[in-house]
Amino acid sequence: MKQTEKRFPEGFLWGGATAANQLEGGFGEGNKGLNIADVLPGGKERLQVLKQPGFNWEIDKEKYHYPNHLGIDFYHRYKEDIALFAEMGFKAYRMSIAWSRIFPNGDELEPNEEGLAFYDRVFDELAKYDIEPVVTLSHYEMPLNLVKNYGGWRNRNVVTFFERYVEAVFNRYKDKVKYWLTFNEINSGLMMPVMGLGFAIQKEEDRYQPTFQAFHHQFVASALAVKAAHRIIPGSQVGCMLIYAPVYAYDSNPENVMYAHEEGRFFNNFCGDVQIRGKYPAFVNRYFKEHHIEIEMEDGDLELIKEGTVDFISLSYYMSRTERKEKTAEEVRQGNMVGGVKNPFLKASDWGWEIDPIGLRITLNELYDRYEVPLFIVENGLGAYDKIEEDGSIHDDYRIEYLREHIKAVGEAIEDGVEVMGYTSWGCIDLVSASTGEMSKRYGFIYVDLDDEGNGTLERKRKKSFYWYKNVITTNGEVL
């Protein structure tokens, strides 16, 4: 253990994070409808499906395995899992509600009672251990009916359906949930509209117009959700949720510096500016002009967006990004939605994601300097292969090292004057990878006996990192 001089504030929300579609399972149970994740196959096929034009949104069990249908069976094992979170001392648990459990088709007039009752049980179990739920309203699990029959977020009607959904859950859980997030990694739609915006790019259509029209509808829906939460749940706080990856220029060539600046500003700040500042940033005007984008707006949309700004920023941070204006396809690195070129100063994970703890300190400072609202790190972690020793133990020192250095960076940012609310490590229990559908890409403090083909006992095991993180929380980050 290493002593740190950095002090985390009293009441800092230490915990872990998951998403319903990646751990719940319960496929078809409780009158749950199909959602986007239910039709995404596991393994290398997933990325191919996500990137190919004209995805057909159908399940083909003869051809593919669908790991999200089982997840890790949290639907039936939530009490066991929450007890393990409590054993680590979690102050907060960031989770999501599956929209298609509440409105199976998305366009019903009344919510599904079985779905509502399930989350009542989850929230009550968390309350038993004084764990604060931090709930994402939409985390890559849009009802499939809204995708297939409405065109996803391109369709203005989906704003109405989303408003109906959020009002139903706000009214139901107003005494159980204080912290809410609107759209998970909203800016991911720039790279992967299938999961975030609910549509696949078709061969015959231009990607720019539908993408930004869909974003506008999400901005309106987010503002409506913020206003509804403040009205229905006094004292509630609503955050946006961004992927953030600071962008470094490959060298001091001004061409590369300018390119890195433009790439970083657009990916990292476009959605944040609208949801936090309450207006479209000036820098998009040139982009819209050059790409012939004309957003259809209804009267009052811009006023609503201005009135419905979020209370705080939540973010995922896994890596930084290094950019050069001229690069070949072979030079592009893997990453969380974004790649860039290889940074010679950084190591990478088993999946090629570059590891940059200082980048998290840079991220927190950049966001706080720009927006001056509280920040909440709701995803950060290392996807890695874990080995079970003969005695059943799992020595994931590589994960401890990764998390230690990133948490130290959070402490440095707090010393810099950044207001940070909390830190919830991603995949606190092993779950299905969003990008590849693999179980072998493990993030958790808790091992789940399940392989990429869905074989295993689902037994839970504590890793070495489990005990390490428990001590971090107990000492409020003083001992890392």
CATH topology: TIM Barrel
Helix/strand-derived category reads alpha/beta
Number of helices: 15
Strand order of the largest sheet: 1-2-3-4-5-7-9-10
Which architecture would the CATH scheme give at its second level?
Alpha-Beta Barrel
Strand content: 5-15%
Distance from N terminus to C terminus (CA atoms, Å) equals 6 Å
Main pleated-sheet profile: 8 strands, parallel, barrel
**What's the order of the H and E elements?**
EHHHEHHEHHEHHEEHHHEEHEHEEEH
Give me the count of strands: 12
- Described by its quaternary structure, the protein is single chain
- In CATH terms, the superfamily is Glycosidases
Provide the number of structural domains: 1
Q: Shape from CA axes?
A: globular
Mean pLDDT: 94
CATH class category name:
Alpha Beta
Low-confidence stretches: none
Helix content: 25-40%
